[in-house]
Write the structure tokens for this entry.
Amino acid sequence: MVFVENGHRLSVYRDHGGYKSLQKAVGMAPADVIEEVKASALRGRGGAGFPTGMKWSFVPKDSPKAKYVVCNADESEPGSFKDRYLMERDPHALIEGMTIAGWALGSNTGYVYGRGEYRYLLDIMDVAIAEAREAGMLGKNIFGSGFDYDLHTHTGAGAYICGEETALLSSLEGYRGHPRMKPPFPAVEGLYASPTVVNNVETFTSVPQIIEMGGIAWRDLGTEKSGGTKLWSISGHVKKPGVYELPMGYADMEKFIMEDCGGMLRDDKKLKAVIPGGSSVYVMNAGQIIGQNVTLDYEGLVAAGSSLGTGGMIVMDETVDIVESTKNLSEFYKHESCGWCTPCREGTDWLVKIFDRITSGGGRPEDVQLMLDIADNIEGKSFCPLGDAAAWPVQSAIKQFPDDFKKWIVNGAASNGHVVEANM
Amino acid sequence: MATATPTSFTDQVAVSDEVAEFSPAVVEEMRSHLTKYPADRTRSALIPLLFVIQRERGWVDNAGVNFLAKFLDLEVTDVWETATFYTMFNLRPVGRHHIQICKTLSCRIMGEPEITDHICSKLGIHPGETTEDGRFTVTMVECLGSCGTAPMMQIGFDYYENLTKESVDKILEDCN
Ligand SMILES: Cc1cc2nc3c(=O)[nH]c(=O)nc-3n(C[C@H](O)[C@H](O)[C@H](O)COP(=O)(O)O)c2cc1C
Ligand code: SF4
Ligand code: FES
């Protein structure tokens, strides 16, 4: 990814062609803008991967209510830190993308909802918004088109669940961050019960490029089904962690980790596990990656047994115990469960309790099956997808790393004076 | 000796009717938040305003909440309902420097436990506690979006990344 020095300043952004796409877009019919986004095959970068053009087309054109454009800058998925880079270094691309969305959707107001801890980024956004307003890229009659649009930042206050789009809207209205029943979907009844589009930071910042290049050309940077490029946040045991931009369909995952990211942090330690898409996707073992030609796109990661998620890749070497790493994530989900529905609130608590028992040496042979049963009672039975996100790490860890669980349970039982044959 | 930092709202049941007062400049700042939202949707400003209360009063206290309820024409319980949901609102006083160490996976495997031990033994407190002189509170928090520069912590709103014991020593020295 090329970041230009001082790219957060309006003058620098404009020198590099910034806001030309907005100017172009307001000269197009809104429906044509949506068509370009559809043609680009852009899928939402917030984790769920929903086609952006299609989402935009769900907003009713004839609604008498005000319409809203909301940027999801809550980025709290463990392993993901790409939106932070974008807002820090390219805030005007976000403003431009949201303003183009405003034109396409017939909205005059947008909000950037940032997690509370991202205060300094919201300050950067506020400065950029003020610059854009001053220069007439926001406000009344943008580029002489008669289109009025303004943007505001809004802060959350520490709650992963507020990244879920309906919880985000509750929070933006000043309430607790509880998810809402869908349908109605936000496109029909979102913020203030008005039609609302919620997209991720990276999704919006892709839009100016799409308008500039044309949807098809942007799509062809990637593959037919996974269009464009994608930002990967990579952390853990590699030499060069950070944010990388790769074309969708990049071949392959092993090369990315072992060459582009500098390989394993410690040369004498082997790769053990990778969580490729932020904590909420299936963990993969090294055998699913090494020599497997896993392409980095939606389809490639599903075929390899996981999913793309937010592209937050966590790399673990052989020093990591998967029972402990999974316990760490279960603690995260327990902490972040909003408490609204029983399977998630109780289930995440029980998972942590059993992990605690196992890692304190009291694990029982039947504990693994018990955890799978609990995960099964959360997955698909919770009010919002956080429940699934809590179940998947546990299910995949048990499947891909049975020996790590066995070791704890056999040793634990032995230290308690029992002789067991762990039948897992 | 350290004082625990309870986070429970029920610690505050000794509610009073006291209403906090703020300087005209702060009230003006609060008003400026309202302009972002439709005139009949001022509750939207509640979270941003709770941050102003926390900054001005050191924590989200009863008198501050009473002020906000009046300011936004809400019930006091509406304000508490929201304030108690979000982990960033301190429902008890915290130290002048609120150290928030990320304990989530990437930080955990990149050396967070040693950093936490180092900080806590230096300050003589456990996570969740405040030093007796009121300077420092240490809290363990979940992922802060710095996984690529782990281990990391936030003090107040400032990020400190790629922590080592040496860099932590320097950072703590610079906290007055
Ligand atoms: C528990 C949970 C947390 C989420 N966190 C985020 C987040 O931090 N940022 C984000 O963009 N999307 C997040 N999402 C996905 C959003 O619900 C929504 O799908 C997304 O913002 C839509 O934007 P997109 O289509 O551009 O991806 C989260 C979803 C769930 C269930
Ligand atoms: S699944 Fe969890 S986070 Fe989602 S509504 Fe239920 S309790 Fe809340
Ligand atoms: S895991 Fe610590 S910042 Fe993400």
